[in-house]
Amino acid sequence: QVLLVESGGDSVQAGGSLRLSCVLSGYTFSGKLMGWFRQAPGKEREGVAYIVTGSTTTNYGASVKDRFTISEDSAKKTMYLQMNDLKPEDTAMYYCAAGWLGRSPLYASSYKYWGQGTQVTVSS
Q1: CA quadruple 18, 49, 99, 40: dihedral positive or negative?
Q2: Is 35 helix (H, G, I), strand (E, B) or coil?
Q3: What was the pLDDT predicted at 33?
Q4: Which of 4, 36, 66, 95 is exposed most, by the fewest CB atoms within 10 A?
Q5: How would DSSP label each residue in 44-91?
Q6: What is the pLDDT of residue 110?
Q7: Using one digit for the tens of pLDDT, what is the confidence trace for 72-97?
Q8: What is the pLDDT of residues 8-57, one digit of tens each?
């Protein structure tokens, strides 16, 4: 059974930082494309970043580039999202995803497996 568990969400002030974690089990971690997404109430799920584990390949959505950093620790089967200079518009439920289906990596429909999400709230 594939399981992704996110953690690290919190309420912070604008300009603050958070680090989200996503632990993967029941699925091969190394050499896989995994992503972070977010969804605010009433909005579509938005691609935040993706990484190819075991490589230096990463990419980011335009709204978070230069503020967020995706990384991974293969030994811990954990993916991270370091979020700096947080803005109120970053407020959302954040999800990690695995099981890439071969389509554009920043589209939610491109992944088979999802975590339950962790809430990030940024106040001004």
Answers
A1: positive
A2: strand
A3: 96
A4: 66
A5: --EEEEEEETTSS-EEE-TTTTTTEEEEEEGGGTEEEEEE-S--GGG-
A6: 96
A7: 999 999 999 999 999 999 999 999 99
A8: 999 999 999 999 999 999 998 888 999 999 999 999 999 999 999 999 89
Residues 6+ apart with CB under 8 A from 42: none
CA distance 114 to 98: 7
For 22-43, b/e burial (b = at least 16 CB within 10 A) is bbbeebebeebbbbbbbeeeee
Distance, CA of 120 to CA of 10 (rounded, Å): 5
Residue type, 108: A
Vertex 99, ends 4 and 76: CA angle to 5°?
45
